[in-house]
TrEMBL record:
Xref: Pfam families: V-set
Keyword Coiled coil: no
Organism lineage string: Eukaryota, Metazoa, Chordata, Craniata, Vertebrata
Domain of life: Eukaryota
Keywords recorded for this protein, A-Z: Membrane, Signal, Transmembrane, Transmembrane helix
Membrane-spanning ranges: 254-277
Signal peptide limits: 1-21
InterPro entries: Ig-like_dom (IPR007110), Ig-like_dom_sf (IPR036179), Ig-like_fold (IPR013783), Ig_sub (IPR003599), Ig_V-set (IPR013106)
Species of provenance: Stegastes partitus (bicolor damselfish)
Keyword Signal among UniProt keywords: yes
Residues covered by the Ig-like domain: 17-123
Protein name: Uncharacterized protein LOC103363679
Length: 279
């Protein structure tokens, strides 16, 4: 073999499929679940087009507490009988689970982790970003018992930032209250958001529970009082909760990917330079 004969083989080695392959786990930053209902906890394994796995991934789900964690999958004692896989197919990369009959104690941060064995590589464990599960109860919106001219809206939510309760009249916001993070010492695992307003005109009154920009649920009360006109100057639209900090989302390590791409190029340039100097 000539001194140039092995250079193409080195190039094929460093640019072969799989050298720059990616394996990532994706899960949403925030989920809202109704108390007593089931919720899907999304987790998706994503592989680059040139990657494949030798074996079925091993799935782990953790409920992260202050100084410890509970196993959501495989289920620990507190979750037995309430957790199941959404898709148990070997060829599916959907690793979401269904948490049944959500309780107040289920609120908190969750993380999806997978042990994977790609072909041509060693096994390793990869984690998704954290998902915050926020729980809410049913909404009460009706006139008060003592005074029928007062409308009262009330809903219990977990002690987290982000929930907002608003009352609207004919589409215009009248009052709103925003939840805040708990101090961790409250006797109850929830806080009560409530608003009471006077019914001064007819029309549609609507109580809304929002989680940041998303409408979670609403309740409507129709009043037959005369004077359904709304004071336009006092009317203000519902403003989403935008000043609440999001759960951190870590960006893709593009610099690392570029560095990995430059490694074979640098090696090839070094080899080419060395061969040219030997001529």
């Amino acid at each position: 073999m000539t001194k140039w004969g092995w250079t193409p083989w080195m190039f094929l080695y460093f640019t072969a499929p799989g050298v720059l392959s990616l394996v990532t786990v994706h899960q949403p930053p925030i989920l809202a679940a109704a108390l007593g209902q089931d919720v899907i906890m999304p987790c998706e394994l994503q592989l680059s087009h040139d990657e494949d796995l030798e074996y079925k991934p091993v799935l782990y789900w953790d409920h992260l507490l202050h100084n410890s964690s509970n196993k959501l999958w495989a289920p620990s004692e507190m979750y037995k009988g309430r957790v199941q896989l959404l898709d148990d197919s070997r060829v599916s990369w959907n690793k979401s689970i269904v948490l049944q009959k959500v309780q107040w104690a289920d609120s908190g941060r969750y993380q999806c982790k997978l042990s994977v064995t790609p072909k041509r590589k060693k096994s390793f464990r990869i984690k998704g970003n954290l998902t915050s599960l926020m729980v809410y109860d049913s909404m009460l919106f009706k006139p008060t018992n003592l005074n029928a001219s007062l409308l009262h809206c009330e809903v219990k939510v977990t002690q987290d930032d982000g929930f907002a309760l608003s009352i609207l009249h004919n589409g215009c916001s009248l009052h709103s209250v925003i939840s805040a993070a708990g101090d961790g010492v409250s006797a109850q695992p929830y806080v009560t958001l409530s608003e009471t307003i006077p019914v001064q005109a007819g029309g549609k009154y609507e109580c809304q529970l929002r989680l940041k920009e998303d409408l979670i649920m609403k309740s409507i009360f129709h009043s037959d009082l005369p004077g359904a006109e709304t004071n336009v100057t006092a009317c203000s639209p519902v403003i989403p909760v935008s000043d609440v900090p999001d759960v951190p989302e870590f960006p893709e390590p593009w610099l690392l990917y570029v560095a990995l791409l430059l490694v074979p190029v640098t090696v090839l340039l070094t080899l080419a330079t060395a061969l040219l100097l030997r001529r």
